[in-house]
User: Fold these one by one.
Assistant:
Number 1:
Amino acid sequence: RKLGIALLGLGDYATHQLAPALQETKHARLTGIVTGSPEKVPTWQEKYAIPDGNVYNYDNFDEIADNKDIDIVYVVTPTGLHDEFSIRAAKAGKHVISEKPMAPTVEDCTRMIEAAEKNDVTLQIGYRLHWEPYNLRLIEAMKTKEFGDWKSISATNASRMTNFTGLNKWRIGKELGIQGALYDLGVYCVQGQLYSAQARPLRVTANHSTERKDIFTEVPETYEWELEFEGGRKAAGMASYGKSGNWLKVETDQGMIELSPVYGYGGQKGSTPEGPMDFPHVNQQALQIDGQALAILKGEASKVPGEMGRRDIRVIRGIMEAADAGKPYEFGKFLY
Ligand code: NAD
């Protein structure tokens, strides 16, 4: 059986990545849409054969509870709205996939997790790289200590953005509770640092900077941080809408594991101490959604549960705290 998915928030990512990917999935299919933009409805209905009864807006969305065609609601709105819509979907008895980063605060994430638990549905995050072969190769090597333990990690996700009008406006504003590139791009670095370290950080030091002060009036353009792990080992990170760079590098006992570029929808390159990696291109979004649907169908634990999303938000909030305070932020105990 294929699980029915409703996409909620028909912006860039839903339109150009998720809906096309849902034409390739084996365990899920696009059966519904939820949108605040009625003008988008006819095109979507026609293109993906979505019946009238499976089209919702943000006012009547809760009626989705009675719709047997829809098993999963995939929330693809701006990050600051993931919590509200994920909680409403859970209350309607639907499984939830929330895009990354999960939500502005740890408390928001906790409310999402609790809503899913209370309504007996699953909550997963759209962390597509957990189905990407180059990243998977690195994760496997770090889990098995194939090249020994790690000594240092460096993760950078930076891309110079120049268009901040229209839909992109929410990305550099404070209104929705997020912090620019640190959330949008930095969450990939935090993910990479943690799946490389296979451990939780003890503390973080951080700073932020802004070159284009006329554009970045509400959130910093660039964040840099250093996570410290047991034994004093460090993982450097950088996320920026002003600079450029796309890598995850891990120094191990036996040499470097290097992925660059690493975070995109394709085009990954990489090497281990054994030499270059060479994997075929995959549709990450299709594999991710299939993996998430299969976890639901089989009643198995997700690779990318809400708890992982919350863990990453904890790290991001720690980075913000450390940068603001100008001194290390101590994480204390991690729950996940
Ligand atoms: P976008 O701005 O193109 O789309 C957001 C959609 O939400 C729009 O259709 C917009 O109309 C709708 N929306 C609903 N309420 C809104 C409000 N109050 N303000 C503004 N828009 C509102 O953004 P996007 O690039 O599609 O990103 C959406 C989410 O997906 C974000 O959380 C983003 O981080 C995530 N994303 C993930 C990936 C990935 O690789 N996993 C890639 C891109 C985006």
Number 2:
Amino acid sequence: SSGETKGIFTPKFEDYQKIYNEIAARLEEKDDYDDGSYGPVLVRLAWHASGTFDKETGTGGSNGATMRFAPEGDHGANAGLVAARDFLEPVKAKYPWITYSDLWILAGVCAIQEMQGPTIPYRPGRSDKDVAACTPDGRLPDASQGNKHLRNIFYRMGFNDQEIVALSGAHALGRCHSTRSGFEGPWTFSPTVVTNEYYKLLLNEKWNWKKWNGPKQLEDKTTKTLMMLPTDMAIVSDKAFKEWAVKYAKDEELFFKDFSNVIVKLFELGVPFAENTEQSKMIFKPTS
Ligand code: DDH
């Protein structure tokens, strides 16, 4: 039987699919949040849990769920992610055998698939660590910077230029909140659906600096309702990055394939999986 915390319980695929279904049901039910979905903020939680990885020291990454603790939870980059963590608390209460670190990544996988994104193969095996494993502030990207900063941050995790561009397409989803990051607005007109619109808009729209007293960000010339961060603009101002942005704008299938591969890599950074689990990744069935 599943859901037991005591005794010998080895969760199987079906047990994880149950949790997937539970998260999907909560996404359906709580559709009064933001643009109508907790999906984007769940993706952001999974990314910020993973993106602290440092390949030199092997520290950080999704193994540990150390954002539960004040030092890391209070890092400026993580502002607002308490909404995603709180959304998952009832799921953790119902299925206490799953670790927070596996749950947060499973929620990211579920959110991407339920928002009509590509299939994201999943492996459990993360364990929760204590406060001592919190990573230092400054490992996640700073939106006010440019291409050099992007390379510093993402090369440290072990990504290349193509992967940086593919990961950035996640900004098809969600929005900036002035109360969280200081920035304001969505990147696309469909912030609760995974698409390649981010690249199309970056390349085809004209972007002007927004005139306001908030942090420097860009707005689209046509509707003035969409936004780009300085780091987003680096994806089309840097020659090597731009080549990939053009490919992904032209070919959504290619983007889906590369996005799936790179997000699996991101979600698994620094996780000490048991041997021979590479071949047995779980493919969850979407609910719709
Ligand atoms: Fe992001 N992101 N992100 N992002 N991100 C924000 C929101 C979301 C940067 C800055 C911001 C990735 C890369 C970068 C998502 C996913 C991903 C916000 C707004 C800022 C600022 C937060 C707020 O105010 O609520 C920067 C800088 C980078 C970079 O330099 C590359 C990546 C790699 C991902 C990913 O998932 C793979 C998502 C989703 C959101 C929307 C959250 C929401 O609540 O909506």
